From TrEMBL, chains A, B:
The active site is at 69 (proton acceptor), 132 (proton donor). Belongs to the dTDP-4-dehydrorhamnose 3,5-epimerase family. Belongs to the dTDP-4-dehydrorhamnose reductase family. This is dTDP-4-dehydrorhamnose reductase. The chain holds residues 1 to 190 of 486 of the full protein. Catalyzes the reduction of dTDP-6-deoxy-L-lyxo-4-hexulose to yield dTDP-L-rhamnose. The record marks 138 as: Participates in a stacking interaction with the thymidine ring of dTDP-4-oxo-6-deoxyglucose.
């Protein structure tokens, strides 16, 4: 795997949700990437993230699906190895509430997800390893302040590459409400 | 892969070099870990890292070996997927100059490497993906301030699981000097 794109930041239709191209340097050993580089990325317009936590999820098989979770912190997400189909839903109050953006991410991409935007992904390869930085500490108490929406909601009409009936999900993620029952996420930290 | 150890911080014989046990939560989808969690880890005695960069290196095959590099910043290192044999050499001036620590790391471990301690690893599994946070920005100019020592130096006597003659290295890493020619790394940032 060799990618040699230039570092770049691309806006999407969801305000504040931005996709990044990351340079990946291949050689005889494998590859190396600056997965997140504050100075270069802020210069290109990425918010100045101050991470306090880095999480990694490992997904055994193709088709593992997680989401849709809007959380009370910003997230900078990328792929260590493998590939995902990602789906993001604006759950903030306002004109863009319910707007959906989807794309695939491999190790040469990253995405910045502002608080209040719902985050979900489905792995397209066995062993996909997903890593993200957040600017607040997770806790079970904080989890009660998440806003959730159902992956399968026909109003979102997300075209999952692997049908959700054949996908590996948590029981919690099967039980989230449809968009029409979602209360938009509070715009400020409480 | 399921690990359920408690978060813990362990000192080593090299001052400031600490190994961590990370809780890894397994379920039907794979696993999830807090790879770095500032508040919990500072409470256990880890230095209060303020990362500005996150790097990922992918290593195609078992036996890829990188190092030994002492850099002018602190590093928090862990494994996204796979396993390494790691070797660390104190290259700071003082009584512990030249002291070596080795151990294996898998996704349930991490290590904090203070500036001035040389860092190296050899992958024990194909596709090992290595991730680290640093508290200063890398640049080619900064690279000229690294202190290097040779992986094969008999004075270090590192017992690499895969002989270095059969390992995949960069040309740069084959050319580093032996310990007896190394000037200890300056104790302060310049
Ligand atoms: C999110 C999180 C979970 N955990 C624990 C709780 C559980 O034991 C285990 C798995 O938690 P779950 O909430 O089921 O993980 P999950 O993988 O379903 O949740 C994730 O889904 C992604 C779509 C979001 O972007 C992430 O931000 C996160 O919400 O990990 C932590 O210890 N720290 C954390 O920060
Ligand atoms: C370290 C680094 C490299 N690069 C580029 C330069 C090269 O094109 C490519 C590979 O660089 P190299 O120096 O050969 O990588 P390397 O994998 O040999 O270097 C690494 O070795 C580990 C043992 C150390 O812990 C790391 O801190 C780092 O020094 O990546 C960056 O763009 N940013 C960085 O921060």
């Amino acid at each position: 795997m060799e990618f040699e794109s230039e570092l770049a930041v691309h806006r999407t239709d969801i305000p504040g949700l931005v996709v990044l191209d990351l340079p990946v340097h291949g050689d005889n050993r494998g590859w190396f990437k600056e997965n997140w580089q504050r100075a270069k990325m802020v210069a290109l317009g990425l918010p100045d993230i101050r991470p306090v936590q880095n999480n990694i999820s490992y997904n055994t098989s193709r088709g593992v699906t997680r989401g849709i979770h809007a959380e009370p912190w910003d997230k900078y997400i990328s792929i260590a190895i493998g590939e995902i189909f990602g789906a993001w839903v604006d759950l903030r109050p306002g004109a863009t509430f319910g707007r959906v953006f989807t794309c695939t991410l491999d190790p040469s991409k990253a995405i910045f997800v502002p608080r209040g935007v719902g985050n979900a992904f489905q792995t397209l390869a066995d062993g996909t390893t997903y890593t993200y930085l957040v600017d607040a500490h997770w806790s079970l108490a904080q989890k009660r302040t998440y806003t959730f929406v159902n992956l399968a909601d026909p109003d979102l009409a997300i075209d999952w590459p692997i049908p959700l009936t054949a996908a590996e999900l948590s029981d919690a993620d099967r039980a989230h409400p449809p968009l029409r029952e979602v209360v938009p996420m509070a715009p400020k930290r409480t």
